[in-house]
Amino acid sequence: MPMPKEDQAAHTISQRLRMIKRVPPELIPLGVVMGAGVIMAAYSMGRKLYVDKQLRLSRSAREH
């Protein structure tokens, strides 16, 4: 049974943008909230790694 041609074709950016219309409208707010949460978590983690001087980011030298 052959595959439909569209599944095998390479998608351009405009074709992918048109596929967004297939997303049910009730899922869009969920995507916005999830995206905001991921962005805030990445910012918070990056800020913690950059600002916190007490955080050990590498191994300390062995003392004998």
Describe the structure.
By secondary structure, the chain is mostly helical. It has a domain at 24-52. It is built from 3 helices and no strands. The protein is elongated, with a radius of gyration of 22 Å. The model has no long low-confidence stretch (mean pLDDT 82).
Write a brief caption for the model.
This protein has 64 residues and is mainly alpha-helical. It is 55% helix and 0% strand.
Topology:
Blueprint (H helix, E strand, L loop, with lengths): L4 H4 L4 H7 L8 H24 L13
Low-pLDDT runs: none
Give the DSSP E fraction (strand runs of 2 or more residues).
under 5%
Care to count the β-strands? 0
Helix coverage percent: 40-55%
Order of helices and strands: HHH
Q: How would you describe the shape?
A: elongated
Q: What is the straight-line distance between the termini?
A: 70 Å
pLDDT average, as an integer? 82
Radius of gyration: 22 Å
Number of helices: 3
Class derived from helix and strand content = mainly alpha
Largest sheet: none
Keywords: Membrane, Transmembrane, Transmembrane helix
Pfam family, one: B12D
InterPro entries: B12D
Organism: Ascodesmis nigricans
